[in-house]
């Protein structure tokens, strides 16, 4: 009732609001119900937004974890690549030394239908040697046997 309302009592004492005006300003029950429904709807939307925010935060944490894992994997791969590059460089230097030793050892040996071994024809020379040793039955005549033996003697001192 209005008699229990501190505002109504206070306003009535001051004389600012007459009794009729107090009755006219009284809330209608439908207004209260509408406000209550609006509050319920707002609370529901707030709850949905909080739930959506929680889901988004969980997704962000998961993404951050995945990004962190990917960064660690990338760092590991980069370190492995660096090690492989260093190994490749060492192997390339060793191969270069071996090819120079082979060129020096075979400089005086002439293969049929080929120029003397050099850096320019090194691959072709090695391919010819490989073919000669894999198909030795084709090189069974005495001249080729002597050539193969002289090649064996020339490369004998090369340390691999």
From TrEMBL:
Coiled-coil residue spans: 32-94
Q: What is its main location?
A: nucleus
**In the UniProt record, does the keyword Nucleus occur?**
yes
Where does it reside?
Nucleus
What is any one of the record's Gene Ontology cellular component terms?
A: nucleus
Q: Kindly list the GO molecular function terms attached to this UniProt entry.
A: DNA-binding transcription factor activity, RNA polymerase II-specific; RNA polymerase II cis-regulatory region sequence-specific DNA binding
The UniProt record lists the keyword rRNA processing: no
Query: What are the alphabetically sorted keywords of the record?
Result: Coiled coil, Nucleus
Q: List the protein's name.
A: MYT1 factor
Corresponding gene?
A: Myt1_0
